[in-house]
Specification:
Blueprint: E1 8-11, E2 14-17, H1 21-26, E3 36-39, E4 45-48, H2 52-67, H3 69-76
Antiparallel strand pairs: 1-2, 3-4
Length: 77
């Protein structure tokens, strides 16, 4: 799927959107999942099932784990 128009609808006191089934299958998302709206460097938005903060946390872990490899190995015992 390269293009789809999403119409916003009134859902109680909130606004909701209905996504095409093909889109949800493509990003492996479904009812109850959380989608993250991420502002890109170009000023546009990206909708993703992946939490960008998680990637930042993993990058920090990788950096620390290399530096303190021996200490972490000892703590794991």
């Amino acid at each position: 799927m390269t293009h789809a128009a999403i119409k916003l609808r009134q859902v109680g006191g909130s606004t909701g959107a209905i996504f095409p089934k093909e889109f949800l299958e493509e990003i492996h998302a479904g009812t109850g999942d959380i989608l993250h709206l991420i502002r890109t460097e170009r000023g546009t938005y990206e909708l993703s099932p992946f939490d960008p903060d998680f990637e930042d946390a993993m990058a920090a872990y990788r950096e620390v784990s290399r530096e303190y490899r021996d200490a972490l190995r000892e703590l794991a015992r």
